[in-house]
Amino acid sequence: MIEIEIQNETHQTQHRIRFAAVPRIGEGVRLREPDGCWASYDVLDLWYQKAEYGDIWVPYLHVCMTPTEKAAATAVPAQRPIGDTSFADSRAVFGEEEFVPYTV
């Protein structure tokens, strides 16, 4: 396993993740978002820096969220405020009639 430092341009964060192989520039990687969901990222840049603890070169990735993933993330439907009764039957609108209610 190769430990790679990932610099995320979208969220301005840095993480160390282990990979089986070093991704190349232009390839896509799936990373977990701060909200826990997975998203696609494009590798923008790859470079190596010498580690402080010996003659070892550490890979660094510079990534940015793919344009289609970024568009999907910003196109989140608007939430209705609590107590909004503008829909006569919200279960039919959201397809919840298929679910069985949870009872204890």
Task: Tell me what you see in this structure.
12% of the residues lie in helices and 39% in strands. It has 104 residues and is mainly β. It has one domain (2-74). It has a five-stranded mixed β-sheet. β4 (38-50) and β5 form a beta hairpin. It is elongated and about 65 Å long. The mean pLDDT is 79.
Layout of helices and strands, plus pairs?
Layout: E1 2-8, E2 13-19, E3 28-32, E4 38-50, E5 57-65, H1 67-74, H2 90-93
Parallel strand pairs: 1-5
Antiparallel strand pairs: 1-2, 3-4, 4-5
Record keyword descriptors for this entry.
104 residues, mainly beta, 5-stranded mixed β-sheet, 2 helices, 12% helix
- Largest sheet, order of strands side by side? 2-1-5-4-3
Task: Give the biggest beta sheet.
Answer: 5 strands, mixed
What is the string of SSEs from the N terminus onward?
A: EEEEEHH
Q: Write down the overall mean pLDDT.
A: 79
Regions with pLDDT < 50 over 5+ consecutive residues? none
Summary?
The protein has 104 residues and is mostly beta strands.
